[in-house]
Amino acid sequence: MWQEYGLAWSDALRVVISAITLYVAVLLVIRVLGQRTLASMSSFDLAAVIALGAVIGRAILGNTPTLVAGLLGLVTLLTLQAVAGQVRRLGRGAQLVNSRPVLLMAGQDMLRDNLVRSHVVEEEVRAKLRLAGIRHPSEVACVVLESTGQISVLRRGQPIDPALLEGVAGADRMPQDLLWGGGRGI
């Protein structure tokens, strides 16, 4: 059947295996480089992602792509994405696919070791503080790099419920006076 549309069974198998291999490779690279890799892109980052997509697409489809090969590659990638979405729902699966949130600032203290580990530079944090309307570091309760790669800023004023910081790497470094109930349970 596939051969009628310009795709031999061996080529169809190659498309599927290439798509799976490259999908897993991209996930591993993102896991190693950190969740910030694709979260907030500059125009340079966008150009790099487009170029990467072209390279990956060409590697999946081969030298002479056909419509059927393109559809097969697309279906394979979308299926892998759906499977990864289902794996995220499982406790252990979520740990494999998602990165753990990380505390970047505790009060007005920048946690430089967590910044380095998360591949986040101080300027990115300062930019997020400005976007959140922070005028002085004393207004900051905490800054968290979320598992999505986005950066959250929580202001001082009301104590933070420790449940909001559950599972956040470095939450134990939060000043107790910023936590509701004195931080019991983190």
TrEMBL record:
Pfam families: DUF421 (PF04239)
Entry keyword set: Cell membrane, Membrane, Transmembrane, Transmembrane helix
Protein name: DUF421 domain-containing protein
Alphabetized InterPro entries for the sequence: DUF421 (IPR007353), UPF0702_alpha/beta_dom_sf (IPR023090)
Family: Belongs to the UPF0702 family.
Subcellular location: Cell membrane
Membrane topology type: Multi-pass membrane protein
Gene3D superfamilies recorded: bsu07140 like domains (3.30.240.20)
Transmembrane segments: 12-32, 44-61, 67-85
Keyword presence, ATP-binding: no
Domain YetF C-terminal: 95-158
Primary site of residence: membrane
